[in-house]
Specification:
It contains 14 helices and 30 strands. By secondary structure, the chain is an alpha+beta fold.
């Protein structure tokens, strides 16, 4: 292709809203243009890189045994009502009605669509497993889209889905996707960290994220340098650390009864430390949470007798409920773990009015003994004794509190946030943290969707059975942006050979006379050799051309100038200096450079 054919508008400065490198450079290099808030158009150069990325994804998934299919982007709302996610998915889902007033959804994800499609005609175990993927447009109405295509409202996802007769078959496909992901990211020059992850609104029994370290990452990764344990902070677990007294000794059980202590103007944990003169490891922190759309059975939970439930398809959920979370005061509640435990779409701290109504006292004085809500007790409270807690009366705390004697937990689970310095549960090493961006995610969904949407088949014994399901996603736009985040300098992008818009740019100082003849000869020769080559035939100053080449980031630039002919300059974008190469050897040499770079990525 010739540069004059491309509608190119490079920018010297990035738009003010672009605060991360990939967003700035994609806008400046005219790879994308903004159409609306969180809505970006891929321009021709950007679209070429996007297509190459999609080709790599297809090649690796096809090789793994997955088959591509193409569902619609607009899907019936009825299938979301069947699964129970019509309300519980939340306001990110864009809903509409057609002219027949039928509820429709602009797909934010495709579990429901896949399940509805594949249950058609499924009758026998002989048809399983079914393993299909799509590369398709999605839409999520992000409350705060940012970072360009890294977190836009409309985006492109590769999402694969599989149906199986048993967990062993599911695990085989799950591992095949994991290996394919590692191959995909390796071919892009990306070093990813597979980490244990929270299943979130997707549900299921387990999941793994493929993260790339990034200072602008949305996720916090907890890592162990000793054994390689890696988990998203939303999922990370640590070895228990003993609750100790002021002398650092394990807390000792007391037979003393609860005693009220007047604590005027004592509200925070810091206030309590000063007032009681002791370590926060002796305090039980009680936090009241509002729980949205919980599908957990709350019918027998304490203080939930009159709780209103709703039905969507075969799924029963509670639009609104409350829990009181107890945790040792030096720790923080992990809201992702809590939402997963309660099978809720969201958990948020209750507001002041709700706290007063349910706990009988304002925040800071909520007490485990008097609170009128089910108690979720973090494991850190299990070995606490002779503790101090809120009394349920404003201006008072209580001491000599014994968990299990003075109150009973409804659920006892790990809901703490792991932090750097905590101990690895696998090897006893010390955790550290880093920021990361999620590029891919694989889930073992189990029977969450096949159960709720009535999918069944006849097993080997002729009996009705429900298939188990897997889900596998890659954020295509996010991956492309992450390549740029990890490979750029102050001049612009440094593309890996695999996804560069063009592998080689031929740049004549002036596109005329002997320079034009040499440039055309190189261009034709490289095309014939199967190299993806661009010829900059624009009538621009050399400085403009060179700046554009560095900004856009073509891996190899061949400069054709009168002063050097019959030699040409060959320069790697990542190198400081160019190399003079005879014109009649340039095609062979550059072709070998391209193929060597591709082979290195394909290892």
């Amino acid at each position: 292709m010739k540069m004059s054919q491309i509608p190119l508008r490079t920018l010297r400065e990035a738009p003010a809203e672009a605060v991360i490198a990939s967003h700035q450079l994609m806008m400046r290099a005219d790879l994308i243009r903004k159409l609306g808030n969180g809505l970006y158009t891929y321009m021709p150069l950007g679209f070429r890189s996007l297509q190459k990325l999609q080709r790599i994804i297809r090649e690796e998934l096809d090789a793994s045994g997955a088959l591509e299919f193409k569902p619609t982007v607009i899907v019936p709302g009825d299938i979301w009502k069947e699964s129970g996610r019509w309300e519980s998915f939340g306001p990110q889902m864009l809903k509409a009605q057609n002219r027949q007033q039928q509820d429709m959804v602009v797909s934010p994800t495709a579990e429901e669509a896949y399940t509805a499609i594949m249950r058609q005609g499924l009758t026998s175990y002989k048809q399983l497993p079914i393993n299909c993927y799509q590369i398709n447009t999605k839409y999520r109405d992000e409350i705060r889209p940012r970072y360009g295509v890294m977190r836009g409202r409309e985006f492109i996802m590769m999402d694969g889905y599989s149906l199986h007769t048993d967990d062993a078959s599911l695990d085989e496909t799950y591992q095949a996707y994991a290996k394919a992901y590692l191959r995909i990211f390796s071919r892009l020059g990306l070093k990813v960290i597979p980490v244990k992850a929270d299943t979130g609104a997707m549900g299921g029994s387990g999941s793994e994220e493929f993260m790339v370290e990034s200072p602008v990452g949305d996720d916090t990764l907890i890592l162990c340098p000793k054994c390689g344990y890696a988990a998203n902070v939303e999922k990370a677990a640590c070895a228990p650390d003993a609750a100790v007294d002021n002398d650092g000794k394990p807390q000792v059980k007391t037979d003393l009864p609860i005693e009220d202590v007047a604590t005027p103007n004592v509200f925070s944990i810091e206030d309590m430390e000063k007032f009681f003169g002791c370590t926060p490891k002796l305090f039980i922190k009680a936090l009241l949470y509002r729980v949205i759309n919980s599908t957990l059975d709350l019918s027998k939970a304490p203080h939930c007798a009159g709780l209103k439930s709703r039905q969507e398809g075969s799924v029963t959920f509670y639009p609104l409920s409350y829990v009181c979370v107890l945790i040792r005061a030096d720790l923080d509640v992990n809201e992702a773990k809590l939402a997963g435990l309660l099978k809720a779409s969201e958990v948020v701290l209750a507001d002041a009015e709700e706290v007063l109504k349910i706990a009988g006292a304002p925040h800071g004085f909520v007490g485990p003994v008097t609170v009128q809500a089910p108690i979720v007790q973090d494991l850190s409270v299990n070995d606490m004794h002779d503790a101090i807690a809120g009394s349920g009366k404003e201006g008072y705390h209580i001491k000599h509190v014994e968990p299990g004697r003075d109150f009973t937990a409804w659920l006892n689970a790990d809901v703490r946030t792991v932090k750097p310095g905590d101990t690895c549960p696998a090897c006893g090493g010390t955790f550290y943290a880093t920021k990361g961006n999620e590029l891919g995610h694989i889930f073992k969904l189990g029977r969450k969707y096949t159960d709720s949407m009535g999918v069944s088949y006849l097993d080997v014994n002729g009996k009705a059975a429900v298939p188990t399901m897997g889900c596998y996603g890659i954020g295509v736009d996010r991956v492309l942006a992450s390549v740029i985040e990890g490979s750029h300098d102050d001049k612009g992008i440094i593309w890996p050979m695999s996804v560069a818009p063009f592998q080689v740019a031929v740049v004549p100082i002036k596109y005329k006379d002997t320079m034009k003849e040499a440039a055309d000869r190189l261009y034709a020769g490289l095309k014939a050799a199967g190299i993806d080559v661009l010829l900059d035939d624009r009538d621009e100053r050399p400085g403009v051309k060179f700046n554009d080449m560095d900004l856009i980031g073509f891996p190899i630039r061949i400069t054709v100038g009168d002063k050097n002919l019959p030699n040409v300059e060959v320069k790697l974008r990542s190198a400081a200096e160019a190399e003079l190469v005879p014109l009649d050897q340039a095609v062979e040499k550059v072709s070998a450079m391209v193929k060597s770079a591709i082979a290195e990525l394909d290892k």
